[in-house]
Amino acid sequence: MKIRKVYLDNASTTPTDPKVLKAILPYFQDKYGNPSSLHALGRESKNAIETARNNIAKHIGAELEEIIFTSGGTESDNLAIFGIARAYKEKGRHIIVSSIEHKAILDACKKLEKEGFEITYLEVDKNGLVSLDLLNSSIRPDTILVSIMYANNEIGTIQPIKEISRIIRNNKLSNPIFHTDACQAVGALPIGVEDLGVDALTMSSSKIYGPKGGGCLYINKKYRIDPIMVGGGQERGSRSGTENVAAIVGFSEAITISENKRISESKRLIILRDHFLQRIEKEIEGVFINGDKKQRLPNNINLSIKGVEGESLILLLDKYGVYCSTGSACSSLDLDPSHVLIKIGLPLELAHCSVRFTLGRHTKKMDVDYAMEMLLRSVAKIRSISSMR
Predict the structure, then answer these.
(1) What is the span of the domain harbouring residue 200?
(2) Per the domain annotation, does 43 fall within a domain?
(3) Tell me: the pLDDT tens digits for 259-276?
(4) Shortest CA distance to 316 belongs to which of 369, 381, 386, 373?
(5) Which of 192, 203, 255, 382 has fewest C-beta within 10 Å?
(6) Which residues contact 355 (CB under 8 A, 6 or more apart)?
(7) Strand, helix or coil at 186?
C-alpha cells in the first residue's frame, strides 16, 4: 500500500501561504530595522507595521488605534481578560465566560479569581451552545466583562454572537465589555466587529495560513486596558516589546487572502466535510458526532468512536500519513479528557475516544477518501486488539 500524506489538523495550525511567505521574506534580511529606530531602516519597518494595521483594521471594520499586535491568540486572549479586568476592577469584579472557552481564557480567569474577581462559567447544551436566557440572568451591576468564543476550536460549534451582543447591550443592570475569541472564525465566518456587536476580538495569524507568532487584539477605542507586558511602550503603550515585523506583515497578507477566499472556500469545505461525515456515519458503527451539526465551522469534524481510544487512533493514522488530533493543540500533552467534551455532557469513556479532523485550503476529495480508508483500517485494527484482551 502506498502511504500518502494528508494533513487534517488545520485548526491547530496551517501551512504558510506562498504569497504570505513572499511578503515576509524581505523583513528577515533587507528590511531588518527596529521599528522604534529613527533612521531610514527603522522608519521602513514602522511604515510596514502601520500599513498592515490599516489593512487588518479595514477587514474587520475597525480604526487604526483599535488594533494591538501580539504574538498570537493566547497572548491576545490574555491581554483581553487581564487587561480589561484590571483596568475596570474599581467598577466591578464580576466576569462571565462560557465553560468551553480556550484554556487561554479559562486559565486567565482562574488567576483572576485569586486576585478577588468572581467568575461565572456559563454551562452549555449538548451541542456546545450557551443559553441566552442564562447569560442574561447572569449579568449583574458589577459585571465588567463577558467573553464567549465565536467558534469553538475543538467541536466547531458557532455561537450566536450577534444575539449575545444584543442581550448584553439591552441588559438593564450593566453593559459589560464583550470580547470574543475569533481565532477559528477568521477566514470562515464574517468578522465585521460593528455587525457582530463586539467590543474586543482576538485573531491569530497561524490559523489563516500566516506565520506563527503573529496575531492581534481588537479593542474598541472607548475602552482601556492594563498592559500585561511593559518596558518599551510599543503599540501605544498597550503591548511593549520590539514588534515582529515579519509576522505582522504576514498576518496582514494572510487575512487579505482569507477574506477574499472566505465565501467560496467555506462552500467548498462544507461539501467535503459533509461527504466525510456521511461516510463516517454510514461505514463505522458506534460513532458520535460532537458539536452542533448545523451551527458548525465548515472544516470541522469532531467525533467519538465507541471502543476506540483517541490517542491510539491518532498514532495509528499517523503511520498511514493521516495527521489529525484529539482536540486543542495547546493542551495536547495533557492526558485528561477534553474539558469541552465533558462540558457538553459526553461520558468520560467517549471523551477519551474523541478525534478531530479539520480540513483546509489544500484538502481535496481524494484526501478525504484516503483518510476514510485509513480510518476504517485503523478502527478495525484497534477494535480487533481490544477484543483479544
Answers:
(1) 18-257
(2) yes
(3) 999 999 999 999 999 999
(4) 381
(5) 192
(6) 302, 303, 304, 305, 310, 313, 314, 324, 325, 326
(7) coil
